[in-house]
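Researcher: Good morning. I'm working through a list of sequences from a screen, and I'd like to move beyond sequence-only analysis. For each chain I'm collecting a predicted structure so we can compare shapes side by side. This is the next one on the list. No need for commentary yet; just the structure.
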Amino acid sequence: MGSYNSQYEEYYRNLKKRKDRNESNYFSKRSYSPAAGYIGKRIIRDLIGAAVLFFMVIVCKLVVTPQTQAVYNYSKKVVNESYDYKQIYTKIKSFNIKTIEEEATDFIEKAKAKITGGKTIKEKIENQFQLPVEGKITSSYGYRVDPIDKSKKFHEGIDINVSENTDVKASFDGKIKDSGEDKTLGKYIVIDHGEGIETKYGHLNSILVEKGKGVKKGDTLGKSGNSGKSTAPHLHFELLYMGESKDPENYIAIK
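Model: Good morning. Structure tokens for this chain:
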């Protein structure tokens, strides 16, 4: 009897090991790749965005005011417009995700401005913000060949050519959200201007403001330099809206 029990226990253990191994393989096959997870999240986010836009149009139809009527008529015009779909497809192929996101944001901002009778974020920035230094733009926003490692990367701001220790000024009123130093941007400052708008200043030689303090348009924030991942003295300048980088040249009047 003892021999029978020991054989049975051995057989049971082998079955259990096989079952555990199969379950492990099953779940490893079922696991999603990071890319699949990203695409899934993007689809969900875009569907939610489309639903919000649809809801806005319905509200504009039900709540009749001069502003909502203008938004509804504009939306109806867009839907009923006759388009050259081959031309649209050609344009879509040349678009990148950044471009599509920016155009979608601009559309939503215009719709909000029509409803409220106010200005879009773009109009506010154009009328109120200034570049932090005067100088030639040596590297624009977008994809470029990295000047150090020669790989193709997305440049989330613009580089302005200025000599070392030039005064770097606040683009507009705000509060110092962050300041410090990292390997890429070197010494940097981030200003929160409210309404989701932020500006970032990098490769500084020195920082003359404190985190949490308020600043006014034109106040000196620090001195330009060559700190961080940089090949020559210049100012790296970024414009952000709701955490997403924007092309400063499309928003701020450049003299």
